[in-house]
Amino acid sequence: MLAAAPKTDCSTVPDDLEHAHRLSAMGELAAGLAHEIQQRLTVIANYANGCVHRLENDRITTDELISLMRQIAETAMQANDITRRARNFSKKQAPEFEILDLHEMLTMGVDFVRNQAEDEGVEISLQLQAASPMVVADRTLISQVIMNLLLNAIESMAGHRGERKLCVETATNGDEFLHVTISDTGVGIPAEIQLLVFEPFYTTKSNGMGIGLGLCRSIIEQHFGNMTLESEKGAGAKIGFSLPRSIQT
Question: What is residue 1's three-state secondary structure?
Fold first, then answer.
């Protein structure tokens, strides 16, 4: 059983402070965002240059050209979606709750960080076992929680000499929540600081702002959920969160 992270009353967190935390968190995600956008721009440039080369040599049919143009448009929309999500996350606004497929969001988050994971030699597995993946949540906020936890897990395994595995699991546990666990085989979190990592501005990173897990916990508690942590130094970490399931009739 995972131990519950220490709770705070979310209603006592001023909106301005919450917004400041969210803006600072963008710095933690900037490298991943830049990497993903750069990849898509490279794909667009390659497709466009290929079209020009084949047109110049009269070696392309109309159907082939249409297909390549569609690929360019789709890749551009992907890049636009990345910037839109980042822009929405930086806005000061109340959560907009809706019914969401959390399995779909977890899969998209994994797809988003997969290239970075491959660069670090990290193997990712998804074990989505819950019968109903529908939850009531704010899409932008929960997407950022997922991405932050995935990126933290990958970073904890960077340079690790042992196996590098990241596992994302879901379960309902027979209650009204959908439970998510993100586990890694990284360096782990020493017991003496496990109660501190959820505090605002605490960090073990020399260049970090220390708001990642604190902001994640605040967002999850805004959604009437809970965050958990289980870890031993040198033995990886398991971070979990729960969200209320949507009861559909």
Answer: coil
One-letter amino acid of 249: T
Residue ranges in the chain assigned as alpha helix (H): 15-56, 62-90, 102-119, 139-156, 212-222
pLDDT of 94 above 90 = no
Give me the pLDDT at residue 226, please: 93
* Buried b or exposed e, range 174-205, using 16+ CB within 10 angstroms: eeebbbbbbbbbbbbbeeeebeebbbbebbee
Residues 6+ apart with CB under 8 A from 26: 86, 89, 90
Q: Backbone dihedral region of 173: left (phi > 0), alpha (psi from -120 to 50 degrees) or beta?
A: left
Q: Residue 54 corresponds to which tokens in the numbers above?
A: 């084949």
Reduce the DSSP state of residue 124 to 3 states and report it.
strand
Rounded to two decimals, the pTM is 0.64
